[in-house]
Structures are given as C-alpha cells and as structure tokens.
Specification:
Elements (H helix, E strand, L loop, with lengths): L1 H31 L27 E8 L2 E8 L8 E7 L10 H10 L3 E5 L17 H17 L3 E11 L1 H12 L5 E5 L5 H32 L6 E2 L2 E2 L7 E2 L1 H10 L8 E2 L22 E6 L7 H11 L3 E6 L9 H19 L2
Parallel strand pairs: 3-4, 3-5, 5-6, 6-11, 8-9, 11-12
Antiparallel strand pairs: 1-2, 2-4, 7-10
Helix pairs in contact: 1-5, 3-4
Length: about 350
C-alpha cells in the first residue's frame, strides 16, 4: 500500500510540474517575449476575370442585421421583375475572406437565374462591426450564419422555406455545421470545403514540417492568453509566402489571395485562430444534415484529403453529389474553372430551389 501511495505521489508531482511549466511557458509567451512578425501586404497578381464592381452590381442593396448587438454588413441581391417570394442563397466567405473578395461574381449569376442572394461579412471582418478587428473565431462565424438565415427569412421578398447555404473553403465547413443545426435548410453548396482538421492537419504537417508548426504555435498562444486579460491582440498575416509566419504560409494561398482580394484587403488575423482551427471538424456534424448537398472537390488540394471526402459521402449517402475538379484550391475561383464550377452550382440550385 505504501508503494502505491508513493507512486501516486510521484505521478502527482510530475503532472503538477508539467502543468506548472506549461503555465509558465504561456506567461512568458504572452507577457515577456516580444514577437516581430513582418507584415505581408498582398501582391495583386492580376485583376480577376469578369470581376464585378459595386457600380455594375444589379439590384444590389446594402443591408445589415445584428448578432448580439453587433451589426453585420451584407449585400442583398434580388432578381429583376420580382412578383413572388423567391429562394435565397446565403453566402459567407472562407478563412479571413470578405464579401468583396469574389462573392459578387457568383451572386450576379444566381441573380440572373431568378434567385436572391444574401452575402455577408462576419463580425470583426470587412465592413461588419466588431472588436478586435480581424478576429476569425469559429463559434462567432457559425452564429453569424444562423443570424443571416434568420434575417433572410424575415424579408418579404424571400420564400423562407427555400433557403440555401453556400460556403467555400473554411466556410465550406461552416455550411455543414449550420445545416445540421437548422433542419429547414433546403440545400447546401460546399465549394472546396474544409471538412476535417485532423485529416487536413496531417497533410499540412507533411508539407510544411514540424519546425514550421512549432514556430507558429507560440503566436497563437500569445494572442489567446492576452485575450483572457482583455489585452491588445497579437496578429499575424492570414496568408504569407512559404516559410514565413502566417496562418497559411503557402504559395497557392499567397497567389490566390493576391488574385482575389481587393486593394484595401487587410492581410492580418488575430493569431489565436491557429490553435483553434485544428480542432474544427465539420465532418462530425454531417450525419445530422437532412438536405441535398453539392460538394465540389479540387483534387490537388491538401485541405480535403480523400479520407475526409469519403467520410462525408458515406454519412450523407444519397443526399450528396460530389464533383471532382483536377485543379488546386484557388484555381476554382477564376477563369474556365470558375465557369465550370458556377454552372454546376446553378444546375444544383435550380433542381432543389425552383418550383
């Protein structure tokens, strides 16, 4: 009995020591060390083909709605010659994206097809309110999607029974979670979706290596701990060149944002997202989705490994329509790849939204 107690005491001391060291490490990272993170202003690669500016948007209205007292900025697109309530597609962008980052090129195509669109900026980003600025926080963004749906259903021009969700990249995961929570959603389009951080994380680790991961984690810890005490956030670039400190330090992401983002885009994020996104697993919510889903997969994209796609297909069964494109993640937003993808989306929406 004495030996057992001694062993337990030793284990307790070891655990206590490890916890103490971890707390000390967090304190040093948050309050003692000074991190120098170079800003990385985006280099605009070229103007997007068929880029739509504010003046050419037809029937676009600037609207807003609130989430917990914070105002969210949105664009509402209504079809011309509106004579009866129409279906509405609710759109939110991916990681750090804003509504003026290419969403309009999709929205006007849906508008031409007789569908309404509500494209919004998440809290803390773009034209929406919220402090600190550039906070990418998954629970908040999921709340924002639900609030956008509620707002769309409240409009007299919208048929509340025919609300669809559209998400891309990180928000491609959000739409699965949101549809699982709202069983009245008519259908979902998930373009190049973030499906499972566990599977994607393994692929990312293979690409960038453990050394790069260990360089980034302290930045997330610093920002997270400082947020507990109401201190100023610690920010890093959303996208960066390979080997740099950024949420996505990848050449495809760097070039993709450079092609998609407007001139006034702020390439920064509160660093806490780097230690939160690895726990985000939309795949776990898929079994509760009860509506048809279009999943568009770019096969040269490490963010949705085949294992993740197979999980989704198995759990959705006949509700899932999966289309593969032999391109990289950001290629789907431009040129012929965009045309192919948006036409596939239109076919899907017409089938499930139009009477």
């Amino acid at each position: 009995m004495g030996i057992v107690l001694l062993i337990l005491q030793i284990i307790g001391i070891i655990i206590g020591t490890l916890i103490g060291l971890f707390v000390l490490e967090l304190a040093i990272v948050a309050f003692v060390l000074r991190f120098s993170v170079p800003k990385q202003p985006l280099e605009r690669v070229k103007k997007m083909p068929k880029e739509v500016d504010a003046e050419s948007a037809r029937s676009r209205k600037n609207v807003s709605f609130k989430v917990k007292g914070t105002s969210l900025s949105a664009w509402l697109y209504l079809p011309e010659n509106l004579s009866a309530p129409v279906p509405c597609i609710v759109m939110g962008h991916g990681l750090g994206g804003t509504k003026n980052m290419g969403l309009e090129q999709y929205a006007v195509r849906y508008q031409d097809a007789g569908l309404a669109v509500l494209a919004f900026d998440y809290r803390h980003l773009g034209e929406s309110e919220g402090k600190p600025r550039q906070l990418i926080w998954i629970p908040y963004q999921l709340q924002d999607y639900l609030a956008a749906i509620e707002y769309a259903r409240s409009l007299k021009e919208i048929d509340p029974a025919r609300i669809a969700l559209w998400g891309t990249s990180f928000s491609g995961g959000h739409v699965f979670v949101t549809a699982a929570r709202d069983n009245k959603i008519a259908c979902v389009c998930a373009q190049v979706p973030w499906l499972d951080s566990h599977d994607a994380g393994r692929e990312v680790l293979k690409r960038i290596g453990i050394k790069q991961v260990l360089r980034i984690i302290p930045h997330g810890q610093r920002d997270f701990v400082r947020s507990w005490f109401g201190l100023s956030p610690h920010k890093i670039p959303i996208v960066g060149k390979p080997g740099s400190i950024a949420v996505l330090a990848d050449s495809n992401a760097w070039n993709g944002f450079g092609e998609l983002a407007p001139k006034d885009f702020i390439n920064e994020a509160c660093a806490r997202i780097v230690i939160r996104m690895d726990k985000y697993r939309p795949v776990k919510h898929v079994a509760k989705v009860r509506c048809p889903v279009l999943i568009q997969i770019t096969d040269k994209d490490i963010s949705h490994p085949l294992s993740s796609v197979e999980k989704i297909e198995k759990r959705l069964g006949k509700l899932a329509k999966v289309i593969h494109y032999s391109i990289a993640h950001f290629d789907i937003y431009v040129g012929d790849n965009f045309e192919k993808a948006v036409n596939d989306q239109l076919d899907f929406f017409k089938k499930h939204l139009q009477k």
